[in-house]
Specification:
Helix content is 37%, strand content 17%. The protein is of the alpha/beta class and 634 residues long. A six-stranded parallel β-sheet has the order 3-2-1-4-5-6, sandwiched between helices. A six-stranded parallel β-sheet has the order 14-13-12-15-16-17, with helices on both faces. Strands 7-8-11-9-10 form a five-stranded antiparallel β-sheet. Keywords: Membrane, Transmembrane, Transmembrane helix. Pfam families: TrkA_N.
Length: 634
């Protein structure tokens, strides 16, 4: 496996492939001695128990890719935050090895879909004998921001789902109690039993092992582990839901267009009253003229308007009353000039105000304060708006990626440094429901959270932290200092790495659900030639704490879709979620499993070879093999 990048995702992904899947990994990066994460990757290269090497190159050109072994590699992951650089490397790599499996990180989803189709077509032209499933698996475009956004939103919002997978994976993990898990909706299974503490976030580590001294969530428990637990014990259950349209519909996604806004949003109340008074004066003058002339009302109004705009002939030889009426209409016309100027100025001011970012309105409460509008912050903002949750954003860079999106959605945004005094108060932090600190700087996130805790001790906070030891220390300290408040720390790279690693292994990872800082991965796995699945019943294929079969693809093998995660609700009939425990898995079946990262590695290791290099096992922590299936003849 080849990984290109010098960032948190590259470091996490390298560790995931080497430790969980036992793969030979080569990392292409500018330097092992400097950069963002060079020393961290160097530690993986120097570990004797891991098969990791590195190629140092400022630009991953053809020579660097050949030195990394791209021609013989099974997969290549491009983890740079620069979409254009990733496209350039992907095109180079596809030319060097048309059979190479590409996993590309891209923020622009539209461009990513075009690139995926282009690279898949290149494989189809070079190898017309490949089937459609192999071609579809040759290129995968993922976004770490899209992967992490649901869990970041769920960590901060009261009563919302723990995660709602994007773009068609119609599952949700919901925190309930053992006694109430069957009351609201029939759950598919119990994913985890939460620690017996006042804060279910215990175990804020990032490994499959127990990082909190036995006080971590119990993942994928069996019936024996659930038996005898108190009814008020917290649990995470998996529920199947149907796709719902986004809140507000299409109209809610469009920016408000000024030409069609109500007049009260364009003109002030004083100006509207002045215009109404001027109209009343003209109506009165027209009525008087009609009474005096005795003609038609239309002709009387027309004559008054000519006098009003000073384009009528002077009534020198007319009666005095008509001359007086003409003078009054002319005076009204003079008064109209400053009124028209006021209309122009206020309209210009309204347009400028619409183009600017609005300030938090008075009386705002129950909102979420979002710190940082980078790639991750933009996706989180989109999720919050889809849920109909009011948001106030804080961003110090007026050219940040999410500023344009916030302006188009009229989201209150403060362009300020959160470390300055009074910024959080301007964001109405005292009346907010939660704080999401999602900048790329751990220090700024921590400073904002600590300051918010002083202003509102019971505030729910979720912060983005990369370093696991630092995150665990911060979490425990805040939990002990503010026992009644909820604190969560999340790492975007840790949430995204399982999906990238699964795609590199040629298996479709549909999503990842965080439980604390642990991760449960959902993946589609073929049953054929896998002794842990083939010939076993659904109940026998269940390995407590490691993996569990959730769904079965009941569609015909020749007509199956390779991208289950992009199904629409109408296509969900291809997956059967309520499986009988005695159903025997057949070779032609494809199943959706929930597994720990190490469990998924063991499950894939037991299957057929996915291509060079072979899967060497699951690292130092091997999963004990379950008993052989019963003899079908006896």
């Amino acid at each position: 496996m080849v990984v290109c990048g010098d960032n948190a995702l590259a470091q996490r992904l390298t560790k995931e492939l080497a430790t969980v899947y036992g793969q030979h990994v080569c990392v292409v990066l500018p330097s092992l001695r400097g950069g963002d994460h060079g020393p961290r990757i160097a530690a993986l290269v120097g570990a004797e128990e891991l098969s990791v090497r590195a190629v140092e190159a400022q630009i991953p050109d053809d020579a660097a890719l050949r030195a990394a072994g791209v021609r013989e590699a099974a997969a290549l992951a491009l983890t740079s935050g620069d979409d254009q650089l990733n496209i350039h490397i992907a095109l180079r790599a596809r030319r060097l090895n048309p059979q190479l499996r590409l996993v590309i990180r891209m923020f622009n989803r539209t461009l990513g879909s075009y690139l995926e189709n282009l690279l898949d077509r290149a494989v189809e032209v070079a190898h017309p004998d490949l089937d459609a499933a192999a071609i579809d698996a040759s290129t995968t475009v993922l976004s770490d921001a899209d992967t992490a956004a649901p869990s970041l939103v769920a960590a901060a919002v009261v009563g919302s789902d723990k995660i709602v997978s994007a773009d068609g994976l119609l599952l949700r993990a919901k925190e309930r109690t053992i006694g109430t898990r069957d009351r609201h909706r029939q759950p598919l299974c119990t994913l985890a039993v939460l620690p017996d503490t006042t804060d279910s976030g215990a175990g804020e580590g990032d490994t499959d092992e127990d990082p909190d001294g036995g006080n971590a969530p119990v993942l994928l428990p069996d019936d024996a582990a659930l038996h005898g637990l108190p009814p008020d014990r917290g649990a995470v259950v998996l529920e199947a839901i149907t796709r719902r349209p986004s809140a507000g519909g299409t109209a809610g996604r469009l920016p408000r267009l000024l030409p069609f806004q109500p007049l009260k949003e364009l003109f002030s109340r004083r100006l509207r009253y002045s215009l109404a008074a001027m109209g009343a004066v003209l109506t009165t003058l027209a009525a008087v003229n009609w009474w005096m002339s005795g003609g038609s009302p239309v002709n009387a109004a027309y004559v008054v308007l000519l006098d009003f705009f000073a384009i009528n002939d002077p009534k020198v030889n007319e009666p005095a009353d008509e001359q007086l009426l003409q003078l009054l209409a002319g005076m009204a016309g003079l008064m109209m000039l400053p009124l028209l100027l006021a209309v122009v100025l206020e309209s210009y001011g309204a347009f400028r105000k619409a183009a600017a970012l609005p300030d938090p309105p008075r009386g705002l409460s129950g909102h979420v304060v979002l710190l940082g509008l980078g790639k991750v912050g933009t996706r989180v903002l989109d999720r919050l708006l889809e849920l109909g949750i009011p948001v106030v954003c804080i961003e110090r860079d007026h050219e940040a990626r999410g500023i344009a999106y916030a302006r188009s959605r009229r989201v209150p945004t403060l362009i300020a440094d959160v470390t300055e005094s009074g910024v959080l108060e301007d964001a109405k932090i005292k009346r907010s429901r939660a704080l999401l600190a999602l900048t790329s700087d751990d220090g700024i996130n921590l400073e904002a959270v600590l300051y918010a805790r002083q202003v509102k001790p019971e505030l729910r906070v979720a912060m983005r932290l990369f370093d696991d030891e630092f995150a665990t220390t911060v979490y425990r300290t805040l939990r002990d200092t503010y026992p009644l408040a909820q604190t969560r720390s999340r790492s975007v790279s840790a949430l995204a790495a399982p999906a990238f690693a699964g795609a590199m292994m040629g298996r479709q990872v549909l999503g990842a659900i965080p439980v604390g800082r642990r991760v449960l991965v959902f993946a589609a796995v073929d049953v054929r030639d896998n002794p842990l699945l083939e010939g076993r019943t659904v109940d026998e294929a269940f390995h407590a704490g490691t993996w569990r079969v959730l769904a079965l693809d009941v569609s015909e093998p020749g007509g199956r879709r390779s991208e289950l995660s992009w199904m629409t609700s109408a296509e969900m009939s291809g997956l059967e979620w309520e499986l009988h425990p005695g159903y025997v898995l057949r070779p032609d079946d494809r199943v959706v499993v929930a597994a720990t990262r190490r469990g998924l590695g063991a499950l894939l290791a037991a299957g057929p070879d996915a291509g060079p290099p072979p899967i060497a096992g699951t690292g130092p922590h091997r999963i004990p093999a379950p008993p052989p299936p019963p003899d079908s003849g006896g």
